[in-house]
Design goal:
The chain has helices at 58-61, 114-126, 145-148, 158-199, 270-273, 325-333, 335-344, 357-361, 371-410, 430-433; strands spanning 3-5, 12-16, 26-32, 49-54, 68-71, 73-74, 84-86, 95-97, 101-106, 134-136, 141-143, 152-154, 206-209, 212-215, 219-222, 227-232, 245-248, 253-254, 256-258, 264-266, 283-286, 288-289, 298-300, 309-310, 314-319, 346-347, 353-354, 364-367. The protein has ten helices and 28 strands. It has a six-stranded mixed sheet with strand order 16-25-21-23-19-18. A four-stranded antiparallel sheet has the order 2-9-5-7, with helices on one face. A three-stranded mixed sheet has the order 4-3-8, with no helix packed on it. It is of the alpha+beta class and 434 residues long.
Length: 434
């Protein structure tokens, strides 16, 4: 298979970036920066910066549709420099790329499809090909550009390049659609929470309270009135090695529920372990965190993982029988609940924020008079959570499929002609099939 290097000037040209101009005449334009890279081979234009640039660069450096932008400076401790994004102009404005990036333009389109080249370079990035090309200076990672230009693009049949691009673009389009559904469903849930916790489900008149409007029959009480007791968790050292007791920690607490990922374990004498053994319906509050919005997040323990204990950065609340713990968790995860917790947090010298049992006891809580109404509210919000979970699961599957196909197709592990055998449509372009 013929390979063509990126520095082959018969196939590719380079478009340099720029920044705010000083020499008149100036021209209003949008400039693409590192923050606009989505990480999936596309761009997020939501915060593209508007700048006055020097108009003498207009023809030489303005971006064209299907230019391939390469991040030359940037990255971070967990992110290599060298991200790739295909440019497609989203509106009528003039676009440039910043001087921390360079665009590659395909000039011989009889040999290369730009979308195929962009996907190939994105696959190289995901495979870690730029990690050895990083040169750190003053905290910024720079891409060894001359080495990068040695990358070779497989020069396969143009019609096959286009089939590959269409196939992968189709998977990515479905992936983006699922991402939008997750955002939409989350927005619906957020709006539903605001309505449910201020209007209830019985069509009642509203009344003023210390936390704003609530239904006429509801009471706003301190958390201390709905709990039986509060307790700090165990400070015993935990490890990833599986032992008798799983120990839930801050990473295991999501708004409303426990996740069983990255569990740690400990051994404790039975009598000591019983002090921290969780029961169904226990609420777990995060009591210290550097992210204010995470503080006060509380999850309801529902028996999974079994025989679980909880760590010292969490506080357990055992509630009275007339209050549904899921209702309480949903309220403190709402916009209003989060703001009430954040307003009572205590900043510490290490930059973190803290809650203690006294603070938790003082948190206001709007409570419907009947447990039935609490459970009906929980039912609505759980249905929305199931919808969000469904879209997130679809998104995860499509993301995995996209990365797997990207790697296998662009490294020729699977060829287009083999896709039909795997149940994947692989229709060639009409002119190629004729």
């Amino acid at each position: 298979m013929k390979m063509t290097r990126l520095d082959d000037q018969t196939a590719f040209s380079l478009v340099s970036g720029l920044w705010k101009g000083e020499r008149a005449p100036l021209l209003a334009a949008c400039v693409i920066r590192g923050t606009n890279f989505r990480g999936d081979g596309l761009l997020d234009f939501s915060d593209a910066v508007d700048l006055d640039v020097e108009s003498r660069y207009l023809e030489e450096r303005r971006l064209h549709d299907e230019d391939i932008i390469i991040e030359r400076s940037g990255g971070g401790p967990k992110q290599a420099v060298g991200r790739v994004a295909l440019f497609t102009r989203p509106d009528a404005r003039i676009y440039f790329t910043s001087n921390f990036t360079t665009a590659i333009r395909v000039i011989d389109r009889a040999r290369f499809d730009p979308r195929y080249v962009a996907l190939f370079l994105h696959a190289c990035y995901l495979a870690g090909a730029t990690e050895s090309l990083q040169r750190a200076t003053t905290g910024i990672r720079n891409l060894d550009w001359q080495e990068y230009l040695q990358f070779e693009i497989p020069e396969i049949d143009l019609s096959e390049q286009r089939v590959l691009s269409r196939l992968l673009d189709g998977v990515r389009t479905s992936l983006l659609a699922e991402e939008r559904q997750v955002v939409l469903a989350s927005d619906i849930k957020r709006a539903a929470m605001t309505t449910l916790f201020t209007r209830g489900l019985r069509g009642e008149e509203q009344k003023e309270s210390e936390i704003g409007l609530v239904p006429e029959s509801w009471n706003v009480v301190n958390f201390s009135e709905v709990r039986e007791w509060l307790q700090y968790g165990t400070s015993i050292h935990c490890t990833l090695e599986k032992k008798r007791y799983p120990v839930l920690r801050i990473p295991n607490v999501e708004p409303g529920r426990v996740n069983g990922l990255q569990l740690k374990y400990c051994d404790l004498p039975d009598e000591e372990a019983r002090k921290y053994l969780l029961q169904d319906g226990d609420l777990l509050f995060i009591r210290t965190n550097g992210v204010l919005e995470r503080l006060g997040s509380c999850a309801v323990y529902s028996g999974i993982p079994s025989t679980a204990l909880f760590a010292s950065y969490l506080i357990r609340a055992r509630l009275k029988p007339n209050v549904d713990s899921r209702y309480v968790a949903y309220f403190y995860a709402s916009v209003l609940g989060t703001s009430l917790v954040a307003g009572r947090a205590t900043p510490a010298a290490d930059g973190k924020y803290n809650l203690n049992t006294g603070t938790i006891d003082s948190l206001p809580l709007p409570v419907p008079p009947s447990v039935d109404e609490q459970r009906e509210i929980v039912g609505i919000l759980e249905a929305l959570d199931r919808m969000i979970d469904l879209h997130e699961q679809k998104r995860a599957v499509l993301d995995e499929l996209f990365k797997s196909l990207l790697h296998k197709l662009l490294t020729a592990t699977i060829r287009v002609d083999q896709l039909s055998a795997l149940g994947v449509p692989s229709t060639r372009e009409p002119e190629a099939a004729a």
